[in-house]
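Troubleshooting: if your tokenizer reports a length mismatch, compare your output against this known-good record of 593 residues.
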Amino acid sequence: MKTKIVYIFFFVLLFFIGVIGGYIYWIFSDLPDVKALEGYRPFEASVVYSSDGQVLTEFFYERRKFVPHYEIPEIIKKAFVAAEDVRFYKHPGVDVIGILRALYRDIKAGGIVEGGSTITQQLAKMLFLKPEKSITRKIKEAILSIQIERKYTKDEILGLYLNQAYFGNRAYGIAAASEAYFGKSFKELTHAQIALLASLPKAPSAYNPFKKPDIAIKRRNIVLQKMLEEGFITREQYNEALKEALPEHPYWRKFEAPYFVETLRQELESKYGERLYKDGLRIYSTIDYNLQKKAEEAVRNGLIEIHKRVKPQVQASLIAIDLKTGYVKALVGGNDFWETQYNRVFSLRQPGSAFKPFVYAVALMDGWSPDDTILDSPVSFPGSVQGKSWSPKNYNNEYHGEVPLRKAIALSLNAATVRLASQVGIKNVVEFAEQCGLTTKIHPYLSTALGASDVKPIELTAAYSVFATGKKIKPVFYEKITDHNGITIEENKSEIQQILPEEIVEQMRELLQEVVLSGTAQKAKELGREVYGKTGTTNDFSDAWFVGFDDNLLVGVWVGRDNHKPIGAKEAGARAALPIWIDFMKQTGQMLK
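Known-good structure output:
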């Protein structure tokens, strides 16, 4: 009988040993390889810079800026050690003494008041394990922690933890947390600020200083007390830190040039996909920060003046392009991005008389000169409906008889322009407009000569580069992109194509300068320098334009209502759009030279 019992006990023991051995084997076989940390890099926000070095925005899934461990100040490391794992530099990854101490305090308090997880265990859990609560996970966590400690230095482990930890308020890592909570670099933090950040990873929501300031300050002060006890700060530093107030609001990264940034984001997302939000790219945009501010100010001031004359809800857009490079230097897509994200720079609107230069350019290529004359008198052409005619009218029904081309375009004479389009061929005008970069449907009807076909402000403005330089330029939104190490992965340059010969360009500049000297844009003479351009107005005053340039900058301004209703009586391009253009150009005369 005894022998039988011994055998049974022996087989049961072997069974349990086998089960335990299998369980241990399964745990080890299922563990991730800690060597992966050698190439580890957490998600990092991509940063967009202006051409003059200002940060415009960040693109991210997790707002984070990776910081090498050797750049993190010692006092920050010590604060987190004091708050999370005071024996960090002494244990091998798992702190048995710490576990026993935490267990004793929890029993004494009658609840869980202190955990026993080390910083290394927390790192292992964040990087390799699912957030489930189970004995298996805790065992894996302990094994991984020991393996990590054997392979990496304490500072490397602490650096990884400080880059990976979540601090609340959408901030991951110490660098992003410092900016989110205090609006400054982690290298500039005070002892009180460091202590507050060190208190957050354990429970970011529970210790949120913006929602629970009373709890947050108690927790911060506990961390300061631990820092004092460990000798990380002096009594004087401790007392001074206790007096410091909590931050009152989060410091979100300022979203500059929002219409431009959103346009850039869409372009880059189609090219880079998820990399844009997690690879820490450095995007060097074409926007000039100062020019952008001037553009926003000009649009804002212009709309204030317009709203003194007409009912509200008038919108405006402005785009400025460097004539030499095609770089977009300023872009404003509306009055307020935070009210409406609709970008009017890309909207479809009738250009009115701002389309007329395409007619005159074709005439010049056909052998006409600026001093050749065209008859400006009432005229009728067959309409789109059989048996009906179409008669273009001049503004105020005033006609001037035989006029040179320079006067016809300067005064924006409709009858003369349509006659000219009829003689040179409207199909030739449409083909030339398309050559200059207009991609929308341009109808081969004579009414198109007066701007009856919809265009996009960005394309119409860019097309004027042909009148300014003879070359078609494609607007460029960024100069180059580097990876997080500063290695260039893309350089971006405008596609430039010669369209007009030099002699035609000189004549076109002459015609467009006449618009300023003696025509509808005479107000622009107040700039005191040579500028060129063309006003545009639709029949019912629903669209007002001025597109023009100097020797450096090409700028297009559109004004109108999103619902295509009239802006107001007599709100022509010269009255509604030109003042915005002039205001912007006054501020930028010398900036690109």
